[in-house]
Design goal:
It is a single chain. 18% of the residues lie in helices and 43% in strands. It is built from six helices and 24 strands. The chain has helices at residues 8-19, 74-83, 135-145, 200-209, 263-274, 324-333; strands at residues 2-7, 33-39, 42-48, 52-59, 68-73, 89-95, 98-103, 106-113, 129-134, 160-166, 169-175, 179-186, 194-199, 216-221, 225-230, 233-238, 257-262, 283-289, 292-298, 304-310, 318-323, 338-343, 350-354, 357-364. The strands form three sheets. Strands 1-6-7-8-5-2-3-4-16-15-14-9 form a twelve-stranded antiparallel beta sheet. An eight-stranded antiparallel beta sheet has the order 13-10-11-12-24-23-22-17. The chain has a four-stranded antiparallel beta sheet with strand order 20-19-18-21. The longest helix is centred in the N-terminal third of the chain and has 12 residues, at 8-19. The chain is elongated. The N and C termini lie far apart (68 Å).
């Protein structure tokens, strides 16, 4: 039975949209599969890892012989379609519990598993809150903070991103305990306060899938899920259950020692210095004096890199150390011409802000060097 006949890219694009969350190795074989459903003129594709589900659809142009559904290896189908020449017409047929992919004189027979066994997420019921915003705006917010999320931290609530609806604002916060990034954006719509922690994988997948235009994304918050709908894609993610740290207590508000510096100049100086930083501890030393910032990195081989940048600074001298990776992360992800660095003392955190965005803050803790 013919499932669908479409040009290669018309099949590959929706398939690539859902397969980003598919793990290569799973204890449950069906989680390596993509669910394919033919309904009238629509071809629906769904992938899940039990925590996140991504669904999309594509128009087939004409109704099929009959509605049908199956699951097949997501990676194998994607690799086959990707290997076909551009512009090729691809046909998917279902025969004897196998999916046959035909294109030109090529034939591929893939094993399938029943669609009834696919663990699709249940209907979560009525949404507790719903907002809409441009895809570009949400994507920019996520990119401003997502690099500060923890990875595999025992404090599981740090392995994600806090999303807050409050007072007509959408706020996003991420921290790994050593640094914290915060960004916010007005929504133009009032909402009851809602706080949810999105898993790291869902945040990274959203950053990959969201468009860079003014097309809207709808965000619906349920009791234990959040659903993002944009274009033909619906991403549903479970919420991390836990208490996120109080970020308002972490962000300093009274630092007097500060200077502005060109972002690109500081970034390039740190990139050069990082070449000779200790590979394990990644420490960098900042020596701030009158109108001067000296940057220094050393490693186990007693090698040293030094950089000096002229700055407009008339405060007390400071000698303070940081993890250089944390500094490179923020400078690579904000895109302003300059940044402002503010300090308390050598044992206090540094606050990084940007003139173009009053709602962005990045706090990084010092380290002993």
């Amino acid at each position: 039975m013919k499932l669908v006949q479409l040009e290669r890219d018309a099949l590959l694009k929706p398939l690539q949209a859902v397969t980003g969350i598919v793990e290569k190795r799973h204890t449950l074989p069906i989680l390596s599969n993509v669910l394919i459903e033919r309904k009238q003129k629509k071809l629906l594709l769904v992938a899940t890892d039990l925590e996140i589900q991504v669904a999309t659809s594509t128009d087939t142009g004409k109704a099929g012989d009959e509605d049908t559904s199956l699951t097949v290896s997501a990676r194998k189908l994607q690799d086959i379609l990707r290997a076909l020449p551009e512009g090729t017409e691809a046909t998917l047929d279902v025969q004897n519990n196998r999916l046959q992919v035909r294109a030109g004189k090529s034939r591929f027979n893939l094993q399938t598993l029943p669609a009834a066994d696919f663990p699709a997420m249940a209907d979560p019921g009525a949404a507790q809150a719903k907002i809409t915003m441009p895809q570009k705006a949400l994507r920019e917010l996520l990119l401003l903070v997502q690099y500060a999320m923890a990875q595999q931290d025992i404090r599981y609530y740090l392995n994600g991103l806090l999303l807050v609806l409050d007072a007509g604002q959408l706020r996003v916060v991420a921290t790994d305990g050593h640094r914290l990034s915060y960004a916010a954006r007005p929504l133009g719509q009032q909402q009851d306060k809602r706080e949810v922690i999105l898993p790291r994988k869902a945040v990274l997948e959203l950053g990959r899938l969201l468009g860079d235009g003014e097309e809207t994304v709808s965000i619906e918050i349920f009791a234990s899920l959040v659903r993002f709908s944009f274009g033909d894609i619906v991403l549903t993610t479970k919420i991390i259950d836990g208490k996120f740290p109080d970020y308002t207590r972490v962000v300093p508000t009274n630092y007097q020692k500060k200077f502005a510096i060109k972002r690109q100049e500081l970034l390039q100086s740190l990139q050069r210095a990082a070449i000779l930083s200790n590979e394990k501890f990644r420490g960098v030393r900042w020596m701030i004096a009158s109108n001067s910032l000296r940057i220094s990195c050393t490693n186990n081989e007693q090698e040293e890199a030094q950089e000096e940048i002229e700055i407009s600074y008339g405060g007390d001298a400071l000698d303070i150390g940081f993890n250089i990776t944390y500094l490179l992360d923020v400078l690579n992800n904000v895109h302003s011409d300059s940044v402002e660095c503010a300090f308390g003392d050598a044992n206090s955190s540094m606050l990084v802000t940007v003139p173009e965005n009053q709602e962005f803050r990045y706090v990084v803790m010092p380290m002993r060097i």
